[in-house]
What does this fold into?
Amino acid sequence: MMATPYGIITFIGIGSNMEAPTSSCREAIEYIGNTKGCRLLRSSSLYRTEPVGFLDQSWFVNAVIEIITSLTPRELLQELQAIETRMGRETFFKWGPRIIDLDILLYGQEVINDIDFKVPHPELHKRRFVLVPLHELAPYAIHPAFGVSAAGLMQRLEDQSRVERIFEGQGTT
It folds into this structure.
C-alpha cells in the first residue's frame, strides 16, 4: 500500500444483508468504480458471513475492494456515504441490518484517529468477515497501526464466526 503518481491504494469493506445483498454489494462496487477520483483495481470474492454483534438477523454478504484514489480520506468517506444514501441505507442500530455498508479499511499507510473518523477501521483486526476477503486480495497489506500484514492478522484472529465464499451461480442470500 503506497502512494503512486495517481493516488493512494485504499481498501474498502462492503457489506449488505437486506433485500438482495449480493446485488447490493455488486452495485456498490460499480458505484465506487465510477466515482470521480477513484479507480477500481481489484475485488475479492463475495462471502456469506455470519452476523457479529447483533446475531438475530440475516447473514451478510461481504467483500473487499482495492481502489486507487486521488481523494483525501474525508472526501472518500463523503463519497462512500453518498453512495450509501443513494442506495437507501438507513441505520437502525449498531451492528444491525443494512442495505449497504461501505467502510474505509486502509488508506495507504495513514492512521487517522479523529473522534468521528478512524482509519484503519478500528474493528478491522477483529473481524473475520473483513479479514478473509482482505487476505484474499492482499495478504501482504500492512496494518499501519500494528505493523502486521493481513496474513499475520488472520493468524492471530480470535473471531470464529463463519465466512463462506459465494461461488458464481450460487444466488443471493
